[in-house]
Amino acid sequence: MRQFSSSSIVSEQPWFGLMLGNSRRHWAKLAGTTVLEAWNEENTDQPPTFTDNLPLLVASVVSEPTQYGATSPLVRALTLADVPLNGMYSTLGIDRALAVFGGGTCYGWPILVIDAGTALTLTGADAHQRLVGGAILPGLGLQQSSLAQRTATLPTIEFSQNLPQRWATDTPEAIQSGIIYTLLAGMHDFIKAWQTEHPNSAVILTGGDRTLLHRYFTKQFPDTKTHLLVDPHLIFRGMAALKTEHGW
């Protein structure tokens, strides 16, 4: 169980950000708008103990964050109403809203964010900071686990650090090929469609599988790599922008 103490933080205006995701808790320690440290915990882990009085911004896609002291004046539970993104719908995940807001704030509008987490989501906003829309599909790990759990003989696999051969000669490699190449083709198609409508838009890849997918994608589509940036902290950049804007 992790403990936090302000004695180890020397930067001005320190605070914590917490995103409660589908399968993990995502934490960051920030000073102002600068991410000092970020780490993840499984949702089954015991929540950490706080030994200081630092502010905490928390958002959740799974439940109300009551166990994190949401009644404390130092804890602010974020909702969609806090995010200044036009055109949002009521079931939009706050993780997607924060990531797009953080991306637009840091990289400019319009913006397309691809979050490679448990689910892979694509979320775009236009030059007027209005949500255009997006898409959701199973991420790398969810696709492979569903095949292993819902079939009689297909094995659990580990994804190679390098782009596998398309035409596989054994079952584990065939699973890798099927998942990876169809996922990359889908990403590429969405990016092309987005850049046709928004040619000056940045495209940012974030989420736990960002590094692996970026390596695959730039190998498969080398002509597109200058258009695909990687930023692991978009959600926390969104939180930081809100904190600065509202003076929390």
TrEMBL record:
Pathway noted in the entry: Cofactor biosynthesis; coenzyme A biosynthesis; CoA from (R)-pantothenate: step 1/5
GO BP field: coenzyme A biosynthetic process
Keyword Membrane: no
Keywords (A to Z) from UniProt: ATP-binding, Coenzyme A biosynthesis, Cytoplasm, Kinase, Metal-binding, Nucleotide-binding, Potassium, Transferase
Cofactor: K(+); NH4(+)
Entry's Gene Ontology molecular function annotations: ATP binding; metal ion binding; pantothenate kinase activity
Functional note: Catalyzes the phosphorylation of pantothenate (Pan), the first step in CoA biosynthesis.
Name this protein carries in UniProt: Type III pantothenate kinase
Organism: Planktothrix tepida PCC 9214
